[in-house]
Design goal:
The chain is α/β, with parallel strands linked by helices. The chain is 38% helix and 20% strand. The protein contains six helices and eleven strands. The strands form five sheets. The protein has a three-stranded parallel β-sheet, covered by helices on one side. Strands 3-4 form a two-stranded antiparallel sheet. A two-stranded antiparallel ribbon has the order 5-8. A hairpin with a 5-residue loop joins strand 6 and strand 7. Helix 3 packs across helix 4. The longest helix is centred in the middle third of the chain and has 23 residues. It is globular, with a radius of gyration of 18 Å. It starts with 8 loop residues before the first strand and ends with a strand.
C-alpha cells in the first residue's frame, strides 16, 4: 500500500553535506524530506568495521578545494574537526592506491564534476528533463571558481573528532529539530512529468 508524503523539497541521500542542505532549506520555512537507502545512513561518510574489532573512517569526497569548508561544517554541526595524520588514501582498485590530496585525485574529482555538468547540458539541449541539472551546474561552477585550488592543492585533510558515524547522527538530530523528516527507503524513480515532482519509493512515494 502506497502513501503520499507531500513536501516542498526532497533530498536524496544522507551524507553530512546533504543533511546540512536539508537543514538549511528547512530553516527557510520549507518542508523537507531526506530519503536514504536502508543501512546506508551517512552516505560515503561512515565508520567501517574492519572485522578485528577496529574501525576505519571512510569519506570519499574531496572537499578541501572549497574555501572555508571545514569552518562551515563545524558551524552547522557543532563538531570540531582535526587534521589527519597521516594523510588518508584513496583505493582506486585493489592494487592502485593514491594519496587523498594527490594531484591525480584532485584532477579526477575536478574532471568528474565537469563531465557530469557537460552531459547535463547535453540533455538540456536535447530538451530532456534532468531534475538534478541545477545541482550539477552549481557544483561545476564551484569547481571552476576554485580551479587553482584543485590544481595546486589546498588545505590539509580533516575529520570529525568524534568519528563520521557519530558526526552524521548529530547532524540528523540537529536537522530533525528544525523539522526535517528522514525516510529510510529505496528510490525507484523520479517522475518529473507530473505537476511538481514525484519521487517514487519502494514502500511509498
Amino acid at each position: 500500500m502506497e502513501t503520499d508524503l507531500v513536501c516542498d523539497h526532497v533530498v536524496i541521500g544522507s551524507s553530512p553535506l546533504m543533511i546540512m542542505v536539508a537543514q538549511k532549506l528547512s530553516l527557510t520555512g520549507a518542508s523537507v524530506v531526506v530519503v536514504s537507502r536502508p543501512d546506508e545512513f551517512g552516505g560515503a561518510w561512515r565508520s567501517v568495521p574492519l572485522g578485528d574489532g577496529g574501525f576505519a573512517e571512510a569519506a570519499c569526497h574531496l572537499i578541501e578545494p572549497i574555501p572555508d569548508i571545514y569552518q562551515i561544517i563545524e558551524r552547522y554541526s557543532g563538531v570540531a574537526f582535526e587534521q589527519q595524520h597521516p594523510t588518508p588514501v584513496r583505493h582506486l582498485s585493489e592494487k592502485l592506491i593514491i594519496s587523498y590530496q594527490s594531484f591525480v585525485n584532485r584532477i579526477l574529482t575536478l574532471g568528474s564534476l565537469l563531465v557530469t555538468a557537460f552531459f547535463g547540458l547535453i540533455q538540456l539541449l536535447r530538451f530532456a528533463k534532468d531534475p538534478l541539472l541545477e545541482i550539477k551546474l552549481h557544483k561545476a561552477s564551484i569547481a571552476m571558481r576554485n580551479l587553482r585550488r584543485y590544481i595546486v592543492g589546498s588545505d590539509v585533510v580533516r575529520a570529525p573528532t568524534c568519528g563520521y558515524a557519530v558526526f552524521a547522527e548529530r547532524l540528523k538530530l540537529s536537522a530533525e529539530s528544525c523539522g526535517v523528516i528522514f525516510v529510510s527507503d529505496e528510490v525507484r524513480h523520479i517522475d518529473s512529468a507530473t505537476e511538481g515532482l514525484k519521487v517514487c519509493l519502494s514502500k511509498g512515494q
